[in-house]
């Protein structure tokens, strides 16, 4: 089996284990890189140069075209080595033994230099966007930090837009993301630990946490789970999320994701851990609870009364999004005696001529709405909203006139759809949409009793669920021990009242705020 | 850190007990009391609760004396192993039997009020699904579930009782102290049975985080339920005539029929009450079944109780279909509890305590020798 198969054949884990020592000879090194590692990679640029007044010291630089910052390499490395170095007469003694040190320590004027001893590492660095400098007669390989590729600048995050609050969003570059987060945390206790995940993609993953507030056990568990990932490639943080979450079978997202650096920073301040994945603008936050999916960043930037009312409204929307169509079906087909007589008569009048049972009626409208929603996401903005209007208004109206659904059903379905948009977390809203159908079917079979039993099943499932050891339903179930966590759930308490970190934080780091205001200021008072 | 270590705290255990105690009894308790002692039901309730608290304390004392030990191990330690097998089997049968009858009564009520045309078997079987699901998950999720269900039910109960006061006539609470001591003593039986459920503490005791506080769990739970029963008794008495009440099968549900919501967007609140009641019944059935599987687990030294959940459910189902009509169910339940409950609740704990005392004496003798 040739080296090529060994490296990239079926068991490609060997790529990491295989340590190809670099040679003293430049030729040999170049040959290994060119023919064994990077054969047929035409976007690799090799530049062979000769150093010294006489030009008798051979060297070579290698980088990936487009990924390395050419200007930086030209100006501060090649220029120095090739031009400026010729103006000074080299002292033979120094050069003989110390060329390597001379170049490393004195000649190249860039901020970051590394040195590696194996060709594997050198190749990995080339592919990450660094420039490699090989010197004849030296085994060590110099890596010049030259990563620089076209990156998106921070824009306003589309999925978590706010009226008031910072407008910068995370981007696809890991380092930019960690910078955006670190800018908000000027504390030496903020730690950033790097991992490489993916046997082939070698995606950089940074774990950010506050050393003294974070729960050590959660951190250990995360470390274990990240190291256990054995996959060929990670393209987005969603894949990491799926590989580290507690129960992949559950419909509820057990890892929070955010596009906002302020949300990530806030989570870190509360003792949670942010996982930044390269190539993904979505940062993961663990441990996450059901509460997190009902929160929006804006809640903390608006006045607390408004935020509280909106939070309550959201929880109400959650109930509507889950139960409204099911309740309609259950009440009209099983318990019509629950509706006041007048309304019952009116309802019966509108449903006269509708040939289907309530469940079929509900399914027609619910499925239509889901199709509309899916279609409008795929279409570009302007057409998308047109589809919404055509679908929502025209089809609804026409369906009622054609007599296949009752007008009340259209109202119920429309309110349900709008309510499910009010849930801030998109992936949670999808789970709610799916569960709504389960509840709908149970209502069709067993009425209110069925609704109760399915909600019981959902509740039991939620009670058994944990995110990195933290009960998914906390603080709703841990309030017996620590009721202060409830201040940031269905309502958002005023900042001075939220003086504690949540249940996840260590005991000695509970306090986060002291309100030291004194109300003695009087503008009229004479001094 | 909150890892899945199958431990429950004292408040969680109290919640579980309260929700276990409140079950089928609330439907008929006011009528049964009214039949025997008329308006003096509250005296019997308080007396019954005091006795129950005593027994519950005893159960807590046993748990406290053998911290971390399962019920089977406790019996085996005090009364030898063969007896332990016998008594544990008996206790499991008691739990399965009670569960079956309770489920049957529940299904009958659901059929009468919610689903008139649905077959009874269907109602029973789909109720078994969440029971099986929760019991498989174990005691810790159950403890967490009670943390949600309990406060919610309390809010609902206060709200609903508040609404029943609309047409209340408090003069109907009179006259008091009319029942003779014999009548009162006769009614004690009813109350004692309506408090059943606290015996699950004996089985769940080994999962307590702080077993040294186990003695307080039972009495607190019984006290909370006593307050609830007193409220219920008063609410039914002030709304119905004492003679009218004796002819209602389920007076508790009937009072909610009288409620009219202000604004009237919902009529027939008893359907909503039923829906809430599903939770409390579920929280009676699930702990009973969990206790059953845990007893069997200890007996056959199984590692994981979750595999025993499904095999035991058919037995419960068989008991639910044993009686032919709702009247028979109540009769059969009466007979069943008469034969089993006293032994399970008083007989076995007392035997354990005696066994423990003898063990201690023997030990002392040995040390003295």
Automatic annotation (TrEMBL), chain A:
| Residue ranges of coiled coil | none
Q: Where is the composition biased (Basic and acidic residues)?
A: 511-520
State which residue ranges cross the membrane.
Answer: 312-334, 379-398, 404-423, 435-462
Q: Which UniProt keywords apply?
A: Membrane, Transmembrane, Transmembrane helix
A GO cellular component annotated for this chain's UniProt record is:
membrane
Q: Which GO terms describe its biological process?
A: spore germination
Q: Where is the composition biased (Polar residues)?
A: 497-508
Where in this protein does the record put region Disordered? 497-527
The similarity comment for this entry is:
Belongs to the GerABKA family.
Under PANTHER family, the record lists: LEUCINE ZIPPER PROTEIN 4, SPORE GERMINATION PROTEIN
Q: What is this protein called?
A: Spore germination protein
Automatic annotation (TrEMBL), chain B:
For this protein, the parts annotated as crossing the membrane are: 12-30, 42-62, 83-106, 118-135, 147-165, 185-208, 220-240, 271-296, 308-327, 339-358
Q: Where in the cell is it found?
A: Membrane
GO cellular component entries: membrane
Topology within the bilayer: Multi-pass membrane protein
- Note the superkingdom of the native organism: Bacteria
One record GO biological process: spore germination
Q: Which UniProt keywords apply?
A: Germination, Membrane, Transmembrane, Transmembrane helix, Transport
Cited InterPro entries: Spore_GerAB (IPR004761)
According to its UniProt record, what is one Pfam family this protein matches? Answer: Spore_permease
Matches recorded under NCBIfam families: 2A0309
The record's comment on protein family reads:
Belongs to the amino acid-polyamine-organocation (APC) superfamily. Spore germination protein (SGP) (TC 2.A.3.9) family.
Q: Which PANTHER family match?
A: SPORE GERMINATION PROTEIN A2
The name of this protein is Spore germination protein
* Native source organism of the sequence: Anaerovirgula multivorans
């Amino acid at each position: 089996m040739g080296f090529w198969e060994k490296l990239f054949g079926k068991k490609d884990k060997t790529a990491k284990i295989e340590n190809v020592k670099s040679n003293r000879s430049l030729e040999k090194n170049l040959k290994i890189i060119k023919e064994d590692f990077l054969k047929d990679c035409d976007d690799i640029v090799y530049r062979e140069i000769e150093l010294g007044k006489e030009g008798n010291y051979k060297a070579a630089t290698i980088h990936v075209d487009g990924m390395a910052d050419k200007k930086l390499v030209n100006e501060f490395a090649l220029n120095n080595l090739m031009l400026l170095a010729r103006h000074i007469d080299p002292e033979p003694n120094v050069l003989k033994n110390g060329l390597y040190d001379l170049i490393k320590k004195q000649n190249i004027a860039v901020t970051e230099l590394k040195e590696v001893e194996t060709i594997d590492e050198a190749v990995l660095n080339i592919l990450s966007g660094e420039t490699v400098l090989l010197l004849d007669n030296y085994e060590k390989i110099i890596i010049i930090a030259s990563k620089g590729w076209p990156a998106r600048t921070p824009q306003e995050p589309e999925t978590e837009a706010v009226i008031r609050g910072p407008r910068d969003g995370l981007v696809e570059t890991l380092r930019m993301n960690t910078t955006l987060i670190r800018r908000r945390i000027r504390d030496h206790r903020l730690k950033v630990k790097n991992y490489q995940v993916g046997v082939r993609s070698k995606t950089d993953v940074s774990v950010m946490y506050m050393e003294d507030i974070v729960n050590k056990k959660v951190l250990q568990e995360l470390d274990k789970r990240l190291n256990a990932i054995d996959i060929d490639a990670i393209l987005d943080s969603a894949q990491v999320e799926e590989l580290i979450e507690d129960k992949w079978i559950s419909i509820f997202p057990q890892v929070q994701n955010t596009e906002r650096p302020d949300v990530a920073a806030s989570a870190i301040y509360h003792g949670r851990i942010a996982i930044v994945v390269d190539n993904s603008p979505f940062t993961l936050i663990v441990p996450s609870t059901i509460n997190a999916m009902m929160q929006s960043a804006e809640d903390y930037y608006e006045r607390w009364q408004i935020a509280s009312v909106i939070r309550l409204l959201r929880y109400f929307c959650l109930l509507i999004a889950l139960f409204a169509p099911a309740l309609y079906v259950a009440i009209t087909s099983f318990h019509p005696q629950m509706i006041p007589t007048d309304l019952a008569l009116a309802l019966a009048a509108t449903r006269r001529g509708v040939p289907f049972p309530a469940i079929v009626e509900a399914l027609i409208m619910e499925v239509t709405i889901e199709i509309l929603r899916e279609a409008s996401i795929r279409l570009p903005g302007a057409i998308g909203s047109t589809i919404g209007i055509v679908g929502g208004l025209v089809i609804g109206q026409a369906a009622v006139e054609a007599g296949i659904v009752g007008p009340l059903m259209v109202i119920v379905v429309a309110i349900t759809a709008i309510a499910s948009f009010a849930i801030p977390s998109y992936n949670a809203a999808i789970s709610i949409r799916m569960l709504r159908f389960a509840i709908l079917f149970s209502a069709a079979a067993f009425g209110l009793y069925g609704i109760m039993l399915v909600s019981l099943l959902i509740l039991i499932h939620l009670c058994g669920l944990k995110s990195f050891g933290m009960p998914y339903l906390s603080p709703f179930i841990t309030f017996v021990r620590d009721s202060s966590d409830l201040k940031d759930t269905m309502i958002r308490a005023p900042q001075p009242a939220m003086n504690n970190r949540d249940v996840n934080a260590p005991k000695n780091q509970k306090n986060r705020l002291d309100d030291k205001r004194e109300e003695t200021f009087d503008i009229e008072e004479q001094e | 850190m909150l890892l899945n270590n199958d431990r429950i705290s004292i408040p969680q255990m109290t919640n579980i007990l309260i929700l276990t105690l409140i079950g089928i009894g609330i439907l008929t308790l006011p009528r049964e009391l009214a039949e025997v002692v008329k308006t003096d039901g509250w005296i019997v309730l308080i007396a019954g609760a005091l006795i129950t608290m005593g027994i519950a304390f005893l159960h807590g004392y046993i748990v406290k004396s053998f911290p971390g030990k399962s019920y089977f191990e406790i019996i085996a330690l005090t009364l030898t192993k063969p007896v332990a097998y016998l008594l544990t089997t008996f206790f499991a049968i008691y739990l399965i039997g009670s569960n079956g009858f309770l489920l049957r009564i529940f299904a009958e009520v659901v059929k009468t009020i919610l689903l008139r045309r649905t077959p009874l078997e269907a109602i029973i079987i789909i109720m078994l699904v969440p029971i099986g699901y929760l019991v498989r998950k174990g005691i810790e999720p159950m403890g967490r579930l009670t943390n949600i269900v309990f406060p919610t039910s309390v809010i609902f109960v206060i709200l609903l009782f508040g609404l029943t006061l609309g047409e209340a006539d408090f003069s109907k609470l009179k006259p008091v102290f009319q029942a003779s001591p014999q009548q009162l003593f006769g009614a004690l039986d009813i109350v004692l049975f309506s408090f059943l459920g606290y015996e699950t503490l004996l089985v769940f005791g080994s999962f307590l985080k702080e077993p040294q506080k186990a003695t307080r769990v039972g009495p607190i739970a019984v006290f909370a339920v006593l307050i609830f029963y007193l409220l219920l008794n008063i609410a039914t008495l002030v709304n119905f005539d004492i003679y009218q009440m004796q002819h209602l099968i389920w007076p508790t549900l009937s009072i909610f029929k009288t409620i009219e919501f202000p604004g009237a967007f919902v009529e027939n609140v008893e359907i909503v009450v039923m829906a809430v009641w599903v939770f409390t019944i579920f929280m009676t059935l699930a702990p009973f079944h969990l206790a059953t599987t845990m007893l069997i687990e200890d007996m056959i030294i199984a590692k994981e109780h979750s595999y025993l959940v499904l095999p035991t459910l058919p037995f419960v189902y068989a008991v639910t279909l044993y009686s032919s009509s709702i009247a028979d169910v109540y009769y059969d339940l009466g007979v069943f509890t008469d034969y089993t409950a006293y032994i399970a609740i008083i007989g076995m704990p007392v035997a354990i305590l005696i066994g423990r005392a003898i063990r201690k004496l023997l030990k002392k003798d040995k040390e003295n020798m």
